[in-house]
Structures are given as structure tokens and as C-alpha cells.
Amino acid sequence: MKSSLQIVSLAVGFLGCVTAFISLHSHWKESSDFGNVIVTSNIFENLWMSCAEDSTGIYDCWYFQSLLAMSGHVQASRALMIASIVLGTFGLVATLVGMQCSKIGGDNYILKGRTAALGGIFFILQGLCTMIAVSWYAFNITQEFFDPLYPGTKFELGQGLYIGWCSATLALLGGTCLLCSCSVTTKEKKLSYAYRGPTRGTAYTTSVTTTTPHPYDRNAYV
What we know:
Blueprint: H1 2-24, E1 29-31, E2 41-45, E3 49-54, E4 59-63, H2 72-98, H3 109-145, E5 155-157, H4 159-194, H5 200-207
Antiparallel strand pairs: 1-2, 1-5, 2-3, 3-4
Subcellular location: Cell junction, Tight junction; Cell membrane
Protein name: Claudin
Family: Belongs to the claudin family.
């Protein structure tokens, strides 16, 4: 039971890491056509670059020149997403080492269980970093969109945000399953220590009894 749960957790955590990497290279926001009669170009942006597409389908992309010139939520989202990928990588390595069916790390199952639990914590931290980064970025998009006094271009949520939400959900689910597998292992150990059957030596000592005749017993006078 615990081995299959750990395998499922590893697969879900791996999908969370892959989708987090995909979300970095997807569009996090795109220009809105709401209220515009004539649309000459569309603008797509993520944490690293901005792309513009004209009406003929030709588009051009350029990377952001200065990190310090960007807004604060973009800088924070960058840092959180990089931390998310690093934590997800640590979670994958720790889970591979701590799995019961894995031969990596020897046969010390107590140490392997703690390593698997550490991998689950890494996955949960990855999911939290991704969730905070994506939700914070989406909050700023919606705040600018519904602000009637905002003078700049209004954007809508891009596909990278939805991929990021899926990545955060998968990472949190994988980490929770790993911690649950470690709790199952702990319960099984407690049950095994609680029940101890009779040993061979105690069985013989309790079954064999010796009696010494009393000197004034009835058989002594026969």
C-alpha cells in the first residue's frame, strides 16, 4: 500500500515540476480586445519577454532589458517560480531516495521514510511558491483591468497562469500523498511493536512444572 502510494506521489510530483517549467515559457497575460472596435495587434507577455503580433500573423518578441525597471510583483513572481522549480527538483531526488521500493540509499527504512517525508515537504513548498506567484500575478492583471482610471493597455489572464495553477495543485497533492504514506508506515510499526507473541523459551518454561514430594506425603508411608 505504501509503495504504491509513493509511486503515485512521485508521478504526480514529477508532473507538477514539468508543468511549472512549461508555465514559465507560456504567456501569462495577453492584451484584451474588450471595448476595441479595431484591433491592429495583440501583445503577449510572461515573466521574461513580451511579444507583439500584428493582423497578418507576424509577431516579434523581445526580452525585458532591466530587472530593476520591472514592477515589484513581476520580480517576486520570477523569484518564486525559480524557487519552485528548485524545490521541485529537490523533492524528486528525495522521493527517489526515500521510496521503499528503491534500492538507492541502502536498506535503512527508517532513514528512507524520513527522506520521503522530506521530499513531500519539498513538494508542498513548491506548490505554495507556484500558487503565490501565479495568484499574485493574476491579481494585478484583474486589478488593472477593472480600474477605469488605468491609462495603459489592459490585459487578460494567459494560459501560463492556468498551467501554473495546475502545477501548484499537482505539487500539493503529491506532497500530501507522500506525507500520508509516511504516516501509514509509522502506524504499521506501532502495531508491530504493540503485539508480541509468546517466545519459545517462555512457552516451555510455563508448560513444564516440577513438583518435589513432601516428606510427610501419603506416599512416603507406603
